[in-house]
Amino acid sequence: MDAELQNVYWLFWAAYGVGLVLFLWMMQRLLRFLPFYGLRTLLLAALAAILAAPVESIDIAGWWIPAWLYGGYELILGDSVAASAALLNLALAGMVLLLVWILDLVRYRMKR
C-alpha cells in the first residue's frame, strides 16, 4: 500500500466524519419538534449507531469501512460471511448506544 492510497483513505474518513457530524446536527434540528425527549434522542442514537459503526475489510487488512456501506455492498454481491461481520458490528454499536441512551435518560430524569 503506497502513501498516496493511504492519504486518500484518511481523506475519505475525514470527509465522512465531517459529513456525519453535519447530518446528525441537521437531524437534531429537524427532530426537535418531536414532543418526547426520549424519542428524539433514541432516533438520533439509532442514526449514529447505523452510520458510525465501522467494520474491517476482509480484502485489505487494516482498512476500516462504514459497516452499513460494506454490509450492504457484500449482501448485494452475495458474500454472506463479510455481510454478517458488518451486521455484527452494527449490532454491537447499537447495543453500546442503547446503553448510552438509557444512561442519558437517567441523567435527564435526575436533572429534572
Explain what you see.
With 112 residues, the protein is mainly alpha-helical. It has one domain (3-111). Helix content is 79%, strand content 5%. The protein has helices at residues 3-31, 37-52, 67-77, 80-111; strands spanning 54-56, 64-66. A two-stranded antiparallel ribbon has the order 1-2. The protein is elongated and about 55 Å long. The chain crosses the membrane at residues 6-25, 37-65, 85-106. This is MFS transporter. Keywords: Membrane, Transmembrane, Transmembrane helix.
Straight-line N-to-C gap? 54 Å
Helix percentage range: over 70%
By DSSP (H or I, 4+ residues per run), the number of helices equals: 4
**How many individual domains?**
1
Number of strands: 2
Whole-number mean pLDDT? 91
N-to-C series of helices and strands: HHEEHH
Largest sheet: 2 strands, antiparallel
Radius of gyration: 17 Å
Strand order of the main beta sheet, please? Answer: 1-2
Overall outline: elongated
**Global structural class:** mainly alpha
Classify the beta-strand content into a percent band. 5-15%
Point out poorly predicted stretches.
Answer: none
